[in-house]
Fold this sequence. Notes:
- With 404 residues, the protein is an alpha/beta fold.
- Helices cover 43% and strands 12% of the residues.
- It has 13 helices and twelve strands.
- A seven-stranded mixed sheet has the order 2-8-7-6-5-3-4, sandwiched between helices. A three-stranded antiparallel sheet has the order 9-10-12. A two-stranded parallel sheet has the order 1-11.
- It is globular and about 75 Å long.
- The mean pLDDT is 93.
Amino acid sequence: MFQPVYLDHNATTPVHPAVLEAMLPYFSRHYGNASSRHEHGRAARRALDEARQRVAHAAGAHPTEIVFTSGGSEANNLFVKGVAATRKPGMLAISAIEHPCVREPARQLRRNGWRLREIAIDGDCRVATADFLAVLAEGPELISVMLANNETGTVQDVAALAERAALYRVNQLANHDANTPANKAWFHTDAVQAFGKIPLDFRQLNARGVHAMTLSSHKIGGPKGAGALVVDKRVDLQALIAGGGHERGLRSGTENVPAIVGFGLASEIACADISARAARQRALRDELENGLAAQGATIFALAASRLPNTTYFALPDLDGETLVARLDRAGFALASGAACSSANPEPSHVLLAMGVAPGLARGAVRISLGADTDLATVREFLAALGETTRQFKLQLNRMSALVQ
Length: 404
């Protein structure tokens, strides 16, 4: 069976062999419900506790701060809607490049009386400092800024942004009067793309003013169906799913023990050699981008600090969806944007927020390298891209000649 070379690791990753092996017993021998009191249940509970410790250690958090969910989308919804449910409608601020699982719940809140403010970004996909300060002056109740963008790979200085928000609150509390309500914003970051690719420490982020952080299993060699909200226990949060009181009452439902076990081990593996893997991928990315530039590509967010595995580019006069389809047939699997919004024909909202012209944005293609990507693969891809675009342009020229 034909199987293209996989260059779409920001969409999902293959399950690591050791992770799969660790999960298998929890489908068969250790199948108990973690809430049951007998030995089958206690074995499942022990597995959950160990996985929670592994995820917490990898993320620089305490195990009691880990709330397991079905994935990143649920964790983001839990924070945005869960915090909003404990407050009267106010202002919610998110960056203009957030993933749809932050943007859409934020828009739902807007329909329920909340005021939504999108924070502007610059041409390299970084939060615009002046607009962020203007947002703080408007007194948001919730702030969400993703740590690393899933399309461009741009890494935000979330710690500095959160520290500014915390300092603003301190100054406001010191100077406010009865007619100026004090800022009580909780700060959240979607770290799904950053986790396992760059060092991450919730304890340090929390000290700077980050109160919650989202993680996902299937982006780091774990299974789909598991994620976590890492949350400061001071945050007042209402559960989205009520029932049996699982996960400290914040996420009811029988735990997906096999997936959570896999998530725990995947977190440990992904973060064990993170520096060496990042260095390898950064060298491969440089080789890739040099080759793309030689073919006339525009590389987005080139001046920003980016994830070491991510390149987002466009070639002149080539539609991204068409190019992805042709490269798939040539043996390379990549993306024309975020996997979750690939059915949307509109240009990437991230690129439009960066000020990229819609025509160029429609040509965007994302390559995301994996742990097993090597130099030979990068060079083979560049050769295939050159031949694919050559054939495509020849076809366009023939069609143009026929029309004339």
